[in-house]
């Protein structure tokens, strides 16, 4: 029955349920959302969609030029310039995380949602991967997320509310060929409550 459902719905059961019975994007109106990896791909798309529904945005990535472009798209989607804060940064530099969070809170007065979206992939034969590649990938895909999430959770506990979002991958559930380090980094993000 589940396989038939998957084929008919083009999604898994949880996604289908959320689409039909979950919260609407209008609930993001006025929320402050900080998105890392916001200069392209999923982060850019999410920023533009949230902008259409009135979310105030803090956008982080390394490329100032691409962040400016995304900010322009968010303004075209209905936000004012002061409702989009650009925070250019390399999220692997964890020593800067406190400062980045402080800038979001100073600018908007609060943070409601942290979207840990920054990350990258890797493809190679596992035994040929250099250790510095492993370390860089884990620094971005795992340790930057752990660091930012800890800071955000401390803030959320202080104010009494908030949400964390982590963009992962199916590779975190089922290994992907020729992506050993990437798969391991995504597996590190998946936990099961027992």
From TrEMBL:
Annotated Gene3D superfamilies: NAD(P)-binding Rossmann-like Domain
Transmembrane parts of this sequence: none
Domain of life: Eukaryota
InterPro entries cross-referenced by the UniProt entry: NAD(P)-bd_dom_sf, SDR_fam, SDR_family_member_7
Pfam families registered for this protein in UniProt: adh_short
Family label: Belongs to the short-chain dehydrogenases/reductases (SDR) family.
Protein name as catalogued: KR domain
């Amino acid at each position: 029955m589940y396989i038939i459902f998957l084929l008919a719905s083009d999604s898994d059961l949880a996604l289908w349920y959320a689409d039909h019975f979950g919260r609407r994007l209008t609930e993001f109106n006025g929320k402050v959302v900080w998105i890392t990896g916001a200069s392209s791909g999923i982060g850019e798309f999410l920023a533009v969609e949230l902008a259409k529904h009135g979310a105030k945005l803090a956008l982080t990535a390394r490329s100032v030029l691409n962040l400016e472009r995304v900010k322009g798209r968010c303004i075209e989607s209905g936000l004012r310039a002061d409702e989009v804060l650009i925070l250019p940064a390399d999220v692997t530099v964890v020593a800067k995380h406190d400062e980045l969070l402080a800038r979001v809170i100073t600018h908007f007065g609060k943070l409601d949602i942290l979207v840990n979206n920054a990350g990258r992939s890797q493809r190679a034969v596992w035994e040929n991967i250099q250790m510095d590649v492993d370390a860089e990938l884990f620094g971005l895909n795992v340790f930057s997320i752990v660091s930012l999430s800890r800071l955000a959770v401390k803030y959320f506990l202080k104010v009494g509310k908030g949400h964390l979002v982590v963009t992962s991958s199916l590779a975190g559930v089922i290994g992907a060929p020729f992506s050993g380090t990437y798969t391991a980094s995504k597996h590190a993000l998946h936990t099961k409550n027992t």
